């Protein structure tokens, strides 16, 4: 095949490809045959790159339609998605990553049935997990082998999705829209209903002389009593003991200390 490249003088010169060698080497002496082969060479120069790209896409499509390839890709997405979901159940920095892991695992079934629809459906869940991985990279030295396996799964999934998107048949707007809507919904729920910090204030009493309403409190290894902060709840006390000389000195200087009980 071939295509035209601009020369220094403004004209275009053909760059030859090996695919056109057969046509060039088989020109006959007849004028009619020469004209016919000349047309073939012109078509080869003009449309060669497009024909070669189409053949590559056709080969990729045939590969994705192979039962073995579809099964392997589907099993990978299901197992890797289940692994991501398991890691997120042990601990997740934010809630919306958990639905991304579930959608990742469920996309494995779609890869088995409709691979042309599965690429768009799994794109945004994988991108969501990619965001989590990228945010964790600054602390890579503190991670273990499970995070490294997670990174490998993300890289392979992104490579498969990108390779599949090179086919026009896999660029399904509906699948991409469904994927984006589900991830966006999970993100909105996370921001609206989870990770909410509520601040409550209570009126509490304190003691810095080692004596609380329920008796003496335990001291440290030097025999110094802690600062006890407490409040009455029903028939008991909710309290905390703080061993802080600075806090104790500041509170002792005030006049609100609890007097010793007899």
Task: Give structural notes.
Strand 4 (211-212) and strand 5 form a beta hairpin. The strands form 3 sheets. A 3-stranded antiparallel β-sheet has the order 3-6-7, with no helix packed on it. Strands 1-2 form a two-stranded antiparallel ribbon. Strands 4-5 form a two-stranded antiparallel ribbon. The protein starts with a strand and ends in a 10-residue tail after the last helix. The longest helix has 35 residues, at 31-65. The chain is elongated and about 80 Å long. It is mainly alpha-helical and 262 residues long. The protein has helices at residues 21-24, 31-65, 67-90, 97-113, 115-136, 145-165, 173-193, 245-252, and strands at residues 3-6, 12-15, 205-207, 211-212, 215-216, 227-233, 236-242. Residues 1-35, 40-48 and 53-58 have low confidence and may be disordered. Helix 3 (67-90) packs antiparallel against helix 4. The chain has 3 domains: 3-64, no CATH class; 66-193, no CATH class; 205-252, no CATH class. The protein has 8 helices and 7 strands, in the order E-E-H-H-H-H-H-H-H-E-E-E-E-E-H.
Total beta strands: 7
Sequence stretches where pLDDT stays below 50 over 5 or more residues: 1-35, 40-48, 53-58
Report the C-alpha radius of gyration, rounded.
35 Å
Biggest sheet: strands side by side, in what order? 3-6-7
Distance N terminus to C terminus? Answer: 103 Å
Question: What share of residues are in beta strands?
Answer: 5-15%
Could you estimate the helical fraction of the residues in percent? 55-70%
User: What can be said about the biggest beta sheet?
Assistant: 3 strands, antiparallel
> Averaged pLDDT, please?
76
Number of helices: 8
Number of domains: 3
Give me the secondary-structure category.
mainly alpha
Apparent shape: elongated
Following the backbone from N to C, one meets helices and strands in this order, namely EEHHHHHHHEEEEEH
